[in-house]
Structure formats: C-alpha cells, structure tokens
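Dissemination and training. As part of the outreach component of the grant, students in the summer workshop were shown how a complex can be specified as a set of sequence lines and then modelled as a single object. The example used during the hands-on session is reproduced here so that future cohorts can follow it. Participants entered these lines:
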Amino acid sequence: MRSEAGPATAYDDLPYTRGGTVDRSEVGALVQSAVDGDTAAWKAIVEGLSPLVWSVVRAHRLSDADGHEVYQTVWFRFAQHLGRIREPEKAGSWLASTARNECLKVIKSLRRLTPTDDPQLLDRVSEERTPEQSVLDSEEAAAQSERVRHLWQEFEALGERCRQLLRVLISSPPPSYQEVSAALGIAVGSIGPMRQRCLRRLRARLDARGAL
Amino acid sequence: MDDDMDDDMDDTYEEALGDGELDHGALEAELREAAAILDPVPAELRLLAVEAYALHDLDAKIAELTFDSLVDAIPVRGAVDVPRMLTFHTGGLTVDVEVTPRGIMGQLLPPQSASIEVLDGPRAGASLTADDMGRFTSEARPTGPFALRLRAGGEVVVTEWMRA
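and obtained this result:
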C-alpha cells in the first residue's frame, strides 16, 4: 500500500518503465550532459518531461492557443536557464512550477481583459486524430476505444480539484510528488490522500455507469 | 461534492477488502494510457521543445524579470487593453519593455545604444537598434513567447522568455 508507506516518497521509489525514457534519478545527469552540449541528453529530457509540462497546461484548462504558448515559454525559458539551474535533479519541479506560474498569469490576464475565448468551452479533446486514435478507431479495437472514451468522460466530469490533480498524476512517466506539488501548489503530504479520494470517486462514477 | 459521505463509507469497505490501493493503482494506470491516447503532447510542441535546445547560450547574461504589470500592478478600473509593462534586470543594465497592440517600445537604463534582436522562438528574429538615449521600438507585436537579445557595451544580454 504505497499511500500508507508515505505519500512523499511513494512514487520516487518506483521504476519508470512506461512511456518516457527519463528515470527521474537521472535527470540531474541528463541536465549536466545537455549543458555540456549533448543533444541526445536534451532530447531525453524533453521526451521524459514534456508530458508533465503538458499535463500542467491541461490541468489549468487553458485554451489551445494559450496552452501552446505557455508550453513553449516554459521550454524556451528552461533552455535559456540550462546550466544555471541550482538543483538540476529537480528540473521536473522547475518545469512544473514555471508552467503553473505561466498558467496562472494567463488566467489572470483573461479575467482582466475582455475575454475573447472561454477556456471552459475550448477545453475538449482535440478533434484531430492521433495515430493512436486511428488505431483505436479500427473495428477490432472498437470495444477498447469505447472503454477508454467512457473512462475519459468520467474523468473530465470529476470535480475541478480532482480533475486537476489526476491530470498531472497521469502524465507519463509518472511524476514525483514533488513535481505534482510544484505543478499545482499542493503540499506534498496531501497529495497521497487526495489521490486516493479522487480515484475512489472516479471508480464510483465508473461503477455507476457500469462501464468498466 | 455530494458524495463526501459515500467516500468515508468506501474507506471502510475497501480496507475490509484490502485491495483499495491495488484497484486505485490499476485505475490510475488505465487513466494514464487514456491520457496518452486522447490528450498527448501535440507533436509540433514536442518538436519545438527539442529545437529549443538552440536557445541554450551560456555566454549570454540573463536579464531576469523583476516587474510584470500583469502581476505587480493593480489595473485601473474599467481599463481594458492596458499595455503590458515588463522590466528585466541584470548587473548594471535595466530593460523596460512596453507591449501594446501596436508593437514594442523599450528603454535601456542607463541609456546607451545597442543592437537588439527580437526572438520569437529557436530561430533568428527581427533586428532593432536602440538609439543613444537607449530607446527602441518595434512595429511588430510579439504574438507568443518572446525574448530580446541585446548587444550593448561589449556584452550579450538576453531577457527571460516571456509570453507577451
């Protein structure tokens, strides 16, 4: 029971076998290699941490245009500060908190100006088909596709705090609790209990629907 | 929300079964897969992040943001479309920038001439010049992230990347 072993370290001990190529314990070394001119190291950092940055953008329900700009700003600034970041092993937290700050600025500027677009309305899964979606659309995968869509619909319908927390937690590879904390401004110690609670709610919604 | 009490009951139920966390772990993993399928990092953004490596420049000094009207100023009631005022600072140089719908206006302090490049991404940007009074203007309003690269007094200074 990871959650009871201590939420602060729960994820940090896990091997990252899914999706990305960055083991969080190697981030510091990769950053150093990138500083020294290793392009492959930089690519590995982007590969491993861009889903985290994207998840922070999505968690804040920005419009596509604003979200894309925040994502770019974060990576441009990270590249600019490369070699000057005090704790390179915490690059993930640096990226997550920079993304959060930029998202909050966007939200603030939308409130201040006459809103030209409504982030709530614009928040939806892209209409464009990714290769994975096209595969899902094939007939054999129709049942699986249905399942994934139902799961996503119920996730989207969760309360705002749960949706935010889970959106960041499910980036791939899984973020550390320090990174989640930086991404959302939530104390590390409260992430584990909130996660339990939110997944429980999601499970209840799915059970009620009879989907999974 | 309305099911707070159900949550507490679930706790007892799950502890009795002893598989609450197993189930949660599996559900989270499934949701992670769904996110990878339905809400992945757009390919063009991933590529831009890879290309951003070109922006890494250890020889340039970074002028850090020290004032942003969006955060540090209280807007006048009813004022819309107020210019965005940004101040960047490094060592002895201050860069004041005003972003309006018509473009960029800026001031270097202490006043000095400089050649300036307006960057909007990893590729080369438009060139400007600051006059002897340290003033510079650009007709083009940055539409996304931007930074200024200045050559002044034998130094290269780059302002922190900002979203205009």
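Chain B touches chain A through 56 residues (CB under 8 Å). Students were then asked to discuss how this feature might be tested experimentally.
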